[in-house]
Every structure is written in structure tokens, then in C-alpha cells.
Amino acid sequence: xxKRLLPLIRKEFxxxxxxxxxxALMFLLPVFLLILYGYAINxxxxxxxxxxxxxxxxxxSREFIDKFTKSGSFVLVENLVSGSQFGDRLDSGKIRAVxxxxxxxxxxxxxxEKMNLQIIVDGSDPTWAASALAYINAIVSQYQQEQIxxxxxxxxxxxxxxxxxxxxxxxxxxxxxxxxxxxxxGLICVILMQMSATLTSLTxxxxxxxGTMEALVVSPIRKNELMLGKVIPYVxxxxxxVLIITAIGVFWFGVPFKGSFLLLILGSFIFLTGxxxxxxxxxxxxxxxxxxMQAATLMTMLPSLLLSGxxxxxxxxxxxxxxxxYLIPARYFLTILRGIFLKGTGLNYLWPEFxxxxxxxxxxxxxxxxxxxxxxx
Amino acid sequence: xxxxxxxxxxxxxxxxxxDRRMLYVALLxxxxxxxxxxxxxxxxxxxxxxxxxxxxxxxxxRTYLQSYKNSGYFDLNxxxxxxxxxxxxxxxxxxxxxxxxxxxxxxxxxRNQQANVQVIxxxxxxxxxxxxxxxIEQINLSQARVILEKxxxxxxxxxxxxxxxxxxLRVWYNPELKSVNFMxxxxxxQVLLMVGMILTTASVVKEKEKGTMEMxxxxxxxxxxxxxxxxxxxxxxxxxxISFIFLVATLWFHVPMRGSVLLxxxxxxxxxxxxxxxxLLISTISRTQRQAIMTNVFVMAPQFILSGFIFPIANMPxxxxxxxxxxxxxYFLEIVRGIFLKGVRAAYLWNQIWPLCIFGVALLGLSIIRFKKKLE
Lengths: 377, 376
Fold this sequence. Notes:
The structure holds two protein chains of two kinds. By secondary structure, chain A is an alpha/beta fold. Chain A is built from 14 helices and five strands. In chain A, helix 9 (223-252) packs across helix 10 (261-285). The interface between A and B is large, with 115 and 115 residues.
């Protein structure tokens, strides 16, 4: 078997090397995507263009605005002069948040009298807006608390009343709350899924298209060997990609790697074989490369992007889609990757995910072996 | 000439429908995404799984914890007895946060002292963690205020003063913060790009691969007729599909359409020139389907990642932000979202329209020139 298999694998590698564009796709694309994503993905609230209508123009109001800008989350881009400008500035997107400070701001602060503070946030991008709202609330409450302290101190009312409950917040796993730390482990999953399903499906379909499948069919090679010969080179390529992505993630983007490297390799292997089997499955049904490519996108990329919890949390989906997400291998691989990278968890926590992934991979592999035919239609 | 080009276009349509699978897949992908974005893409966070370690077990600690439950944001799924149990729940991802009320919480409150509470948040998902932290701080603050007000009242101080800043937080354009309203308009842009690029390259490169392109060249069809005939069917398919998305978005998902439909579709046409131009350009530099696919992937990926499709451009590093100005999709996304959600008029979109015009003319022009050269 080995004797027949090796030349096939060698042939496959020669094909790969001969076509520089597919070689580039295999090794450059993951790096390219990772760097793009690594720099592009950032949901932190930073440098939000802020407009202020300061009707008070006092030291107090300026100090209040400073609370927003000093945090680095907001940048004051314009001092507005009238409320009628809000619509124009927000519509054009020049400003994404507006603070309207009433003219009696400093006066009312002195006596802690009730005042109305109007804040408007551009909600078009809900993810961003939700974080921005949380930020604004935090800044305002903190400022209010400080002013109360100042008031009591000034009045000489004995002990300054502290907040009766002191909340100490600690963040685990991703202490600095960097979004890169969350996304890069997930990207390994997406990139692997895309690459393996696309590449394997393409390699078989292009043999069909170019008519070289016929030559393979008449050769003494067996069906399973043919499949293995097609898949093994890409498994190797994908493994190199895993290493490259992990290295860039850890050394370039500073993503922590707390868990076991061996477990990462094991998980990637199970996931990869499943993804490759999907590719084979697609290729047995597709007639042209374009078709195979489209089907690969539809069957692997989209579900793994949308239903895996990569961007959108699974807990918030309707129950039917939540149910469906259990069938997406990426869902389990994602949990495994994040666990290994960020939490350093081992098999004692991750075994259910490994088991599910193994089951799904075995299922797809069995299916693809059965459907894969060594003949011409 | 008229009948010549009509026949050619007819042939293109016949080919398109004969290769039905390809068409279905191209049409199906956006529909799946439409459903996905409509139902999946919810970023609002409720039912956050939380564990509680109540070492105090007094009336005070129970009231305090109850306020988290009552907020509607948190599900208190686990009641712990020991600190050690925390690790298991957080490591296993079973809870997003653990609230720890140490012994003496109630006693401190009775004695008018400051009581301590500790919360641990799973920060892996940073943006989610930030929002959870915000919720917890808010609930804690309102609880603390209730107690503080009581204390002050006893001291004879007007307790209302503690809430003297009445913040009227308003969210414009998308007050319920629904992701559908943000993502579905973006699909509009995506369809134009995908159909324009993938189907166009597929159709042109296929003729090349099969050698039928040479046959087309020797027919009396003029180059511009050939190009027009190749592009028109896909322009029509795109148009049908975006109309479909438009209807589903507004009628089914109730995405607000505040601007002019005419403006939206005419600018969609402008963007279509760009995507068809890109498609044609890629097909001139690709000899095989495989090459075309790979080039498409390389060209498409940055468009989606750097255009603000999902990831906010404002948060990208300065150098990357500069690159985004060279991505036509960026401008079109701003246009689509602006018209849908903000109802802005053309005058506000001028800064997006002129770059799109330049890209459209340049890309389509360049591709036509290259395509003609290849034909000759």
C-alpha cells in the first residue's frame, strides 16, 4: 500500500509546488488573514469622536469633559454651539457621541441639585454602542460619586459617606481585556476550516475537470489509497499552517498560550481530518472548481463563522439555531482553542468537546469514504 | 448590432441557467446569511450565567444577590460553598462571572461600615466581559445607593442629592441596539461584491479554459459588445438579489429604511461597476478556474475584514486605517448603512460617492482595456 501511496503523495506535492498561486494560498493566505484580522479586530471603545455642547462653560464642565477624553476612550472633535447641530454631525458620522451639558451644570453641582444631562450615542453598530454605553455610564457615575465626596468635605459634614459596598472586580484569563486574545485562537479554527475544505475539494475536482482522473482510475491504485494520497499532503500543509498561525499569534500579537501544545496538535488533527473529509465529500458531488469552491464556502465557512460562537455568542441565538450549532465542529474546536490558549485548561475540562469533535469527524470521514468513487461518470 | 448583442446576452443567460448549481449556490449564500444575521447576530447580552459564593448568608447578602437576579441580566445558576469551586466553573466555561460575598458583609452594613464584595469575570471574550462588568457595576451601585440613602436620611441629609446627575442616555438610529439593523444592510453590499466578482470571473475564465473565448473573438461581436454581454446578466442577477434582500430586510426583519430607495439603488448600481470591474480584471489575469478562485479569495478577504463590515474601522491602527481608504466596499457600506439607518441624503454622502465613482471608472476602465488587449 505504502508503495503505491507514496508516489501519489509525491505527485500531489509536485502539483502544489508547480502552481505558485496555490502554494501562496496555502502558506501566505493564513498569514495574510491573521495579520489583517489581528489588526482589524478590535471592539474596544477607543478614540470615539465626541461632540460637546457645553452651555455652562465653567471649570466644572470642562473637568467633566476631561473625564471622558483623559480616559483615552473619547476624543473631543468639536465644541458644538447649538442642539440643532446634533442631527447633522451624527448623520454624517463625524461624531458618534454627544454630551449636552446644561447651563446650570456648575451651579447645581455645588449644591448637588438635580440636573439633566443629555447624552446621545450613535447606535448603528450595536456591538460598539453597547460597550460605549457601558463606558459612559461608568464615567458619569464615577464623576457623580467624586462630586458627592467633594460636597460633603466642603460642608464639613463629619465623615465623608463612602459607598456602603465596595466592589472589587477582577478579570481572569484576559486581564487586559484585549479582543485580539479572544479572536486569534478562534481564527486558527476559521482559517483551517476554510483552507482544508477548499483545497481538498479543489484538488479532486480539478483532476476531474482536466480529465486526469481517468488516468488515476485505470491505475492499480485503490479507492482508499487515492483518497489518502489526496488528503495527506494537505494535512501536512495545514499542520504547518497551525504552527505558523500559533507562532504569529503568540510572538507577534502577544496572545497568551497557557495550555498544552500537544493538546493543540491533537485537537487540530481531529478537526482537520473532519474538515478534509467535508472537502472530499464536496468534491464527489461538484462538477467544477467554482462550484466546489462555492459549496465549500457555503457548507464550511459560513456555518463555522456564524454558528460557532466566533463573533456571535451562541447563548443568544434562537433555540433552533442553538441546536444546529451542536452539529458544527468549529463550535467545539473553538472552545478547545480558547481553553488551551487563554485558560490553560486540559483534557479534564475539554473532554466533552474532544469527544464530540471526534464523533463528528468520524461520521464525516465514514460518509466521505463511502461516497467517494473511483470511477468516471 | 442590436440583435447581435441580444443574441449574445441570450446565450449568456442560457449558460447561466444551465449551470444551475453554480447559480443556486451564489444566490443561496446571501439568503443563508440573511437568516443568520437576522436570527443569530444578537450581541445584546442577557441570561449571563453566574455563580454565587455567599459566605455571609444573612438577610443583607441575600437581598444584595437577589438584585442581580431581578436585573434580568444574570442567571444565578450555581450556589457555591467554597472558593475552590470557582476555578472549575470558570475554567469549564460554565459561568461568565462569580460573585463572592465574604463573611461579615451584613455585619459591616449594620455597623455603617463599608462592606466588601468581590467579582471575578471571565475576560476571554473581551467585549462581552466589558459589558458584563458594566452591568455588575451598575447593579452594585444602585444597591449601594439604596443603603447609603437610608444612612443619610438617618443623619438628616437629603438623600436625593446622591442621584443628582440625571443622565438621559439616548441611542439614535438603532435604539434597541439590534444587530440585524447593522448587518442586513451590509449584506446588500456583500451580494453586489460576491456576485459581481465570483460569477463574472467564473463565466469569463470558463470560456478561456474551454477555448470558446477564441470562437467568440472571431465572431463579428465587437469587444465592447462582448464585455457588455458578459457583464449584463450578472448585473441583472445582482439587482434581483439585492431587491430580494431589501424586501426581506424591511418587511420581515423590520430593518428601518429611513432614506430614499431610489438613492440606495442608484448608488448600488455605482458600486456594481466596481465589483464587475474587479471581476473582469481578475479574469484577465487568471488562466484557470483554480487561479481565479485563489485570486478572488485574496482580493475578497481584505475587503470584508477592512471595510468595517463587522470590525469598526475607527479602532484599527492608523496605518491600517489608511489602507481602508483604498477599499471600495468601505464607502459603499457607509452609504448603505447611512441610507437605511440614518436616512441621510446624497449631500451627506458626497465624501463616499466620489471615491466610489473613481474606483468604478478606474477598475472597469482598466479591466476593459486589459480585456480588449487579451482579445486582440
